[in-house]
Design goal:
heterodimer, A: alpha+beta, seven-stranded antiparallel beta sheet, five-stranded antiparallel beta sheet, B: about 675 residues, alpha+beta, Nucleotidyltransferase, domain 5, nine-stranded mixed beta sheet, six-stranded mixed beta sheet, 16 helices
Chain lengths: ~550, ~675
């Protein structure tokens, strides 16, 4: 069918909705078949569909930073393998951090989609998910690596499936390099099943619309995305704004690490430039450039089209800059395992923007994702476990309302915490308290949301890992809003061993205790302007003294 | 059943209408009456609809009621002033929840959650603690319970209290004792305890379920008492049942004790009806497709059983109750069509009943799906709602031209057809989703279409998805109420176990099941179910150690652990495509108590002979999606169609409250019950 006309607005919407449903079905398949709770419970994955030019045409809800990372990875990996070497039924695996735009345990699978007519791929499907273990130097999580080779087995862009056949030798290599081979292969199979679902559905889409019409429709949808962003940008002031914040440390030394950003908006172009930030750190807090881009995209998206499903056209107005060899542009062999840098940097971008448009920006949240994990052997079953929790922080206040109370950080807003009853059943931790912390937020015309306090007592020996990268610098307020104390993790409180940690791996004994005190959000505006009624409500609810 | 109690009645409250149906148990004849919904005094719309039927209430064997009262109380925040009592130190489990924002707010960093059902000042901690095995670490502080209750009731004025303690699913003694103390101290306060409602793990989900129960209880009790009184005044002496969200019905006593079980029962009648049809017509795999004015509900019937879930959500609050696994999309006749930067969009805004679509002439000025249906010729402007309302075709046409056609450079028919294309794409996505979640191919199902707009939309969905058959039941707009007539009494019991299957002896499991069955049987007896009509069913929710998702395996006869493991593995293989070596863990032990009612008779009709021409009303142009152009459609009167009639598309069957549209590549056949079966002519 030599159909060269434009595609009408109804058909465009039909194509858009159909592609979203393909991504959604891939997501359903992944969550249905995944083995590890990190995927189906915590939702630590990202699913995206690209057109022939590797522009994003649909994504399914998942970790926001993962989704943007896919955009970068698919280009680098396809470039490495070579388009002309891709065949129907291939699936390419990559976890090389500098191309894959994430740490080594977030592995991306990429599958080209071909039409019956042959030729080059007409689309690409990608699924990124957290793999539980790929043989890094320590079990669970790596907190202090000094180069990539301590962070596990690496695949640059390697065909795991060749023309429909799973490469058994590669599977053996993965299995023999993992401490948890069954769980990892269970999740790999889930990723493959989701790609197979996507392939079947994409073939149906191609059959229905034809490759030519589909191509013209997706081109038009990308142009639509561009117009959506242009409309969002037109409302924003133009200019140039900078901000600085500090990351606690690099996991090895104690020195805070400088993070700087300059945001420029003029004539429909938007630039996020990390010039002025520290050079690459010795420890694993460095961000591959793709990961930096993903962080910038999340901020840009929230600013211009938060309620629209993402497509690549929406990102065309955005440029991201960071010099190779710096914190925000890691190059081989810089370690990149604990990328909390991206979480803190997301709010750094907002900090710069807040100078120009405080009414559109929220004050800083508790600042990052204070995570903890316990590793040990379960006293009942004798089995090894490694169970983690992403702790909640208060969100920052806005020009219109108080910040949201303790919840998952902005950078992973759909992630869920791990229930007390699950933590206590699966590990040797028992909670003695889990409550909001009165006074843990910044005051203001609108106050931040409160952070929380969790007191843990260990009922058996094991290892306790924590990762927190914003326990030194306070969350920043907006328009005169208050700034709370930062997050604190206190080991062995009220003993002579008491100490505060951010990122640490600690041996714990039965009877030891830990307190996690997460920061609330910062405030917005002068607290003298706070309504008396709101103040009374907070007193009644026991949130202030 | 007394000899003169030969009728059943069901009443279903919808967003705009209350449907009341009466069924004659001997002949299978049934009648439908509608009355407007009365949101301020919901019982009044119910009594209005009953009055329209003019039934002698003394002849009713059963009165079955489906109500969204609990749901509406939550949506409108009209429930009781509620307090929570929880372990000391864990005051904010309910406030913090699972920490996530809704998926559609993923990039909304200024998210403001809705007002919580319980304010923090009304949450109190008391001393007591169990460990993960249910062993007591801290005894219940009874003085603390009294002090907490005094604070909540006397200072905070709560009318209902939810009690939820950590690991109470292991041992409910602390919750039970705390409730006993409070009930003695404040008899007028309603107390809900988590171990009565959801004896399952995960403290936030359990607390949320208990809070919802407490929150809706007072309003629900008042409503049921009021309605019972009205029925009794009319001479009603039969059994009053209330629909449950996850199958069957419950007596009013059981419903008042656990109103949470009713909150998502709105679409349940249609699904029970769909399961009944699956049996009757021997279409074991059906998709129930219910399209009303504002939303579209899809549910899968597999092997003549509705697919159920053990967890649901209401306003983002999790509910650990058994429910039908229903996917709802906010799209219906009132959904507004609009354009955005060159794309045609439908919904989520709805014109509702007021001001309504443009064609209603009540001030609505934005084109809706109903306006598109009128332009496409599917709605007869003079016969709408049996002629009670005249539609303004010219206004609908100019609205679609102005808002859609001119914006997108499409003529008015193409624009109206485009509105349907977009609606269809979303609908097909939802239908696909429910089948994909079960690992099933939608093409192997039949589509059962009901609700006012179901018979119009379903044949289009079937064409798009390669579904071979659409079934349109008798009076599709009253099908949901009809379905309720077949509801059995159902009570569910569950306990979280978390032991490995290999570690539990068959005797242990047997005695656990037996104890739960004793509870179920006692409850059925309390509800007046004789032993002849009472039954229990056993199920185990199993999973591989380390997994979160579990699969439900039916347990019959003697406990055989090896057979249970095999059954689980077969199910896992079928659903997820693989089985594993890992140990199998018991998540929940479930027992269902059943009070089995009589199945309603379905009348078999006689062929009328002479072909469908007897029912031909007229011919009018309508849009054919197979030819993508306006085409003459023959229009038939459903009341005059009879079994064995066959009609080739393009055609329409009008029955006043809904229209079945058969495209030119489809045909229709009337079966012996009078149901319409729409199939494809291609490949047939």
């Amino acid at each position: 069918m030599a159909d060269t006309g434009t595609v009408d607005g109804a058909t465009l919407e039909v194509v858009r909705a159909t592609l979203l449903s393909v991504a959604e079905e891939m997501r359903t398949t992944l969550m249905r078949t995944a083995f590890s709770p990190v995927i189906y419970e915590v939702r630590d994955f990202g699913i995206s569909i690209y057109d022939r030019n590797l522009d994003l045409i649909a994504e399914a809800p998942g970790l926001t930073r993962f989704l943007g990372a896919n955009d970068y990875a698919v280009r680098k990996v396809v470039d490495f393998v070579g388009v002309d070497r891709l065949a129907p039924g291939d699936v390419v695996l990559s976890n090389y951090p500098y191309w894959n735009a994430a740490h080594t345990y977030d592995a991306t699978l990429i599958a080209p989609v071909f039409s019956d007519a042959g030729g080059a791929p007409v689309a690409y499907l990608t699924i990124r998910a957290h793999w539980l273990d790929l043989g890094a130097k320590d079990p669970g999580y790596v907190l202090d690596s000094t180069d990539m080779h301590q962070e596990g087995l690496v695949f640059p862009g390697t065909k795991l499936v060749k023309s429909g056949r799973l490469d058994q030798e590669l599977v053996d290599i993965i299995r023999f390099n993992s401490r948890m081979p069954d769980a990892v292969m269970g999740d790999v199979n889930a990723q493959l099943a989701a790609l197979a679902t996507g392939q079947r559905r994409m073939q149906a889409v191609l059959g229905r619309f034809g490759p030519d019409r589909l191509r013209r429709a997706t081109d038009a949808l990308l142009a639509y995305g561009e117009r959506i962003t242009a409309r969002g940008l037109a409302d924003l002031p133009q200019g140039e704004w900078s901000a600085v914040d500090w990351l606690d440390d690099d996991g090895i030394g104690d020195a805070p690490i400088r993070m700087a950003v300059t945001v420029r908006h003029s004539d429909g172009r938007f630039e996020i430039d990390f010039d002025g930030s520290a050079l690459a750190a010795k420890g694993p807090v460095n961000l591959p450039f793709g990961s930096t881009m993903a962080t910038a995209k999340v901020a840009f998206k929230a600013l211009t089209s938060p309620f629209e499903p993402t497509n690549g056209g929406q990102m065309r107005a955005l440029t991201v800059k960071a010099a190779p060899g710096t914190l925000f542009h890691a190059v081989y062999p810089a370690p990149t395992f604990t990328q909390w840098t991206g979480i803190v940097a997301l709010e750094l971008i907002f900090k710069a923007l807040a100078q120009a448009m405080p009414e559109r920006i929220q004050a800083c949240s508790g600042g990052d994702v204070p995570g903890f994990m316990m590793i040990g052997t379960h006293p009942d079953s004798g089995r090894a476990y490694a169970i983690s929790n992403n702790e909640s922080v208060g969100w920052g206040a806005t020009a219109r309302h108080d910040g949201r109370l303790a919840g998952s950080h902005l950078a992973q807003s759909v992630v869920r915490n791990t229930p007390v009853e699950v933590l206590e059943s699966k590990t040797a931790m028992r909670m003695e308290r889990l409550e909001l912390r009165p006074g843990s937020f910044g005051g203001g015309r609108f106050r931040g949301g409160p952070g929380l306090r969790r007191d843990i007592i260990f009922t058996a020996d094991g290892e306790f890992l924590t990762v927190a990268k914003k326990t030194k610098a306070r969350p920043w307020g907006l328009s005169g809003g208050g700034e709370p104390e930062p997050t604190a993790i206190v080991l062995f409180p009220d003993t002579d061993r008491e100490r505060r940690v951010g990122t640490a791996r600690t041996a714990v004994r039965a009877g030891d205790r830990v307190s996690v005190l997460t920061a609330g959000g910062a405030g917005y505006g002068d607290s003298a302007d706070r309504k008396a009624h709101s103040e009374q409500e907070d007193v009644l609810d026991g949130l202030i003294g | 059943m007394a000899a003169d109690q030969d009728l059943r009645m069901a009443v279903d409250i919808g967003g705009t209408f209350v449907d009341a149906v009466e069924l004659d148990m001997m002949t299978g004849a049934f009648r439908l009456a509608k009355a407007p919904t009365t949101p301020g005094e919901p019982w009044r719309g119910v009594t209005d609809a009953i009055a329209k039927l003019a039934t002698d209430l003394a002849r009713l064997e059963v009165f079955i009621h489906g109500t969204t009262l609990g749901l509406n109380a939550v949506l409108e925040r009209r429930g009781a002033v509620t307090g929570i009592i929880i372990n000391d130190g864990f005051r904010d489990i309910f406030m913090i929840g699972r920490g996530n924002v809704p998926d559609d707010h993923m990039y909304d960093f200024q998210y403001e959650p809705p007002e919580p059902l319980v304010k923090r000042r009304r949450i109190a901690g008391v001393g007591c603690r169990l460990d993960y095995k249910g062993r007591e670490l801290v005894p219940l502080d009874e003085t603390g319970v009294r002090a907490a209750a005094r604070h909540l009731v006397e200072e905070q004025g709560v009318e209902a209290i939810a009690i939820c303690f950590l690991f109470s699913f292991r041992d409910p003694a602390h919750e039970q004792r705390a409730a006993e103390i409070i009930r003695a101290q404040y008899p007028e306060v309603k107390v809900s305890i988590s171990s009565d409602i959801a004896r399952e793990h995960r403290e936030y989900e359990r607390t949320s379920t208990t809070v919802l129960d407490a929150y809706i209880r007072p309003i629900f009790e008042r409503y049921i008492d009021r309605l019972s009184g009205a029925l009794d005044d009319g001479g009603f002496a039969g059994r009053f049942l209330v629909m449950r969200s996850g199958g069957g019905a419950m007596t009013t006593a059981a419903a008042k004790a656990s109103p949470t079980q009713t909150v998502l029962s709105g679409p349940a009648g249609g699904i029970i009806g769909a399961a009944f049809m699956a049996d009757l017509l021997d279409r074991r795999d059906l998709i129930s497709f219910d399209v009303g004015g504002t939303s579209l509900d899809v549910c899968l019937i597999e092997n003549a059983q509705p697919v159920t879930a053990h967890e649901a959500e209401l306003e983002h609050y999790p509910l650990l109750i058994p429910t039908y696994d229903i996917r709802t999309i906010g799209a219906g006749g009132g959904s507004i069509a609009w354009t955005d930067e060159g794309l045609l969009k439908v919904g989520p805004q709805s014109a509702g009943a007021e001001p309504g679509p443009i064609c209603y002439g009540r001030g609505g000025d934005r084109p809706t799906v109903t306006d598109a249906a009128l332009i496409l010729g599917y709605v007869d402007p003079d016969r709408f709602l049996e002629g009670q309302m005249t539609l303004d075709v010219a206004a609908a046409r100019s609205g679609i031209e102005r808002w859609i056609g001119a914006e997108l450079g499409m003529d008015v028919e193409a624009a109206a057809a485009g509105i349907y294309d977009v609606l269809l794409a979303r609908t097909v996505g939802a239908v696909r989703q429910v089948t994909v979640e079960r690992g099933r191919d939608p093409a192997t199902f039949s589509l059962l279409a009901f609700g006012g707009a179901g018979p119009l939309l379903a044949p289009l969905v079937a064409r798009d998805m390669g579904i071979r058959e659409v079934i349109v039941p008798i009076v599709p707009s009253g099908f949901s109420a009809w379905g309720m007539l077949g509801a059995d009494i159902v009570n569910d019991y569950a306990r979280t176990d978390l032991r490995l299957l290999d570690e539990v002896s068959a005797d242990d499991l047997e005695s656990l099941f037996a104890a739960m069955e004793a509870d179920a049987s006692a409850s059925l007896a309390d509800q007046g179910i004789g032993a002849d009509n009472a039954a229990t069913e056993r199920q185990l929710e199993l999973r591989y150690m380390g997994q979160e998702h579990a699969l439900t395996v039916a347990v019959g006869g003697a406990i055989d652990r090896a057979a249970l493991r095999r059954a689980f593995e077969e199910l896992h293989e079928a659903r997820y495509g693989h089985a594993m070596e890992a140990p199998v863990q018991i998540l929940n032990v479930r027992v269902r108590g059943l009070g089995i009612g009589r199945s309603p008779t379905v009348a078999i009709r006689e062929p009328a002979g002479g072909g469908p021409e007897r029912a031909l009303l007229n011919e009018r142009p309508a849009y054919c999606f197979a030819r993508r152009t306006m085409t003459p459609f023959a229009v038939y009167d459903r009341a005059r169609l009879a079994p064995d009639d066959r009609i080739d598309g393009p055609a329409m069957v009008d029955e006043g409250t809904s229209v079945t549209v058969i495209q030119s590549d489809q045909r229709l056949e009337v079966n012996r019950y009078g149901h319409l079966l729409v199939t494809s002519t291609e490949g047939a």
